[in-house]
Design brief:
This protein has about 150 residues and is mostly helical. About 85% of the residues lie in helices and about 0% in strands. The chain is built from 6 helices and no strands. The longest helix has about 30 residues. This is DUF1772 domain-containing protein. It comes from Paractinoplanes ovalisporus.
Length: about 150
């Protein structure tokens, strides 16, 4: 379930949040993104983000059914990649944009937005969206395969 929730979060950012923010002026983009990034750091998000990794790992290592193990391991590998991308790419970009300060007092918000690398953030988020959706699909298929075997 947490993997499915994360696929939804990444997907929503990809096809709605970043598209909407992308159509805004520089100050609105920066302020909106900063507000979203501060708001998303909450127990619900963190439970889903970390839970997807932990619960899939537990499912892989406690699983005795060899028929579904490849699907669970594939999901785990994909989500480990997503976790790594998030920590190595998206979070540092988010943090740099937050550290830039109040967009309404910036001398050059266009330069701050450009330094954020919006296209890079969005491209890597697309990878996260596809990988997490695939991981969720693999976990769903593992449940189907488990039901067929049982």
């Amino acid at each position: 379930m947490t993997t499915g929730l994360m696929a939804g979060v990444f997907g929503l950012y990809q096809h709605t949040v970043m598209v909407g923010l992308g159509r805004s002026d520089d100050r609105t983009f920066i302020g909106g993104f900063q507000a979203l990034d501060r708001a998303i750091l909450n127990p619900w998000f963190l439970f889903s983000f970390v839970g997807a990794l932990v619960f899939t790992a537990v499912a892989a290592f406690l699983n005795g059914n060899r028929r579904i193990l490849p699907w669970v391991l594939a999901a785990l590998i994909l989500y480990v990649i997503v976790f790594g991308i998030t920590v190595a790419v998206n979070v540092p970009l988010n943090d740099a944009l937050k550290a830039a300060g109040d967009p309404f007092t910036m001398a050059d918000p266009a330069a701050v937005r450009e330094a954020f690398h919006e296209a890079r953030w969005t491209a890597w988020n697309l990878v996260r969206t596809i990988a997490t959706t695939a991981a969720f699909g693999f976990l769903c298929w593992a449940l189907v395969a488990r039901g067929e075997a049982g």
